[in-house]
Design brief:
single chain, alpha+beta, Alpha-Beta Plaits, 2 domains, five-stranded antiparallel β-sheet, 17% strand
């Protein structure tokens, strides 16, 4: 029989995982085969810059936490997994994808994005989305193009009226 102190520690970890899943917009499962301590520290630093975290949990504890949230990933939780999560939907995914390009030992497997189980193909698509600032710049550029075209139209119309 397990010691009550150990059971309490495990329950605290399960509660932490539940809170991380609930409070995170994206919760990504990664396979880490052979990353050095320095590379893991580099990944943690890259995720911290995007207000995200990297945690290593036992699969059984993650499975218990997800089961209590009515999420079934039992078939996926085999082998060593690492989780990255953050409050932004795209930033942790982009940080992990950028890091994985340079380090083939790290692979994204699947994730929970906005409460939905997300496969690898969708995660890769999300990793290519520009940042919020980039999207706002594109939007502003589009609006400026419309305003420019409207100004040209008005100018041509005014010139047409002057000729008459």
């Amino acid at each position: 029989m397990a010691n009550q102190k150990i059971l309490d520690q495990k329950q605290a970890t399960i509660d932490e995982i539940i809170q991380n899943v609930k409070n995170s917009s994206s919760f990504i499962f990664l396979e880490n085969h052979g990353l050095t301590v320095a590379e893991t520290t580099e990944l943690r630093r890259a995720l911290r810059e995007s207000n995200s975290e990297l945690k290593i949990y036992k699969n059984t504890l993650v499975n218990r936490a997800l089961t209590s949230l009515n999420i079934d990933l039992t078939s996926e939780l085999n082998g060593p997994k690492v989780v990255a999560f953050g409050s932004d939907v795209v930033e942790p995914i982009k940080a992990v994808a950028k890091f994985a390009e340079k380090h083939p030992n790290l692979e994204m497997k699947l994730g929970i994005v906005d409460g939905e189980i997300t496969d690898l193909a969708t995660l890769k698509k999300l990793a290519t989305i520009p940042s919020r600032e980039g999207l706002l710049t594109m939007f502003a550029g589009g609006l400026m193009g419309i305003a420019r075209d409207f100004a040209i139209c008005l100018d041509l119309h005014a010139k047409n009226l002057e000729e008459k």
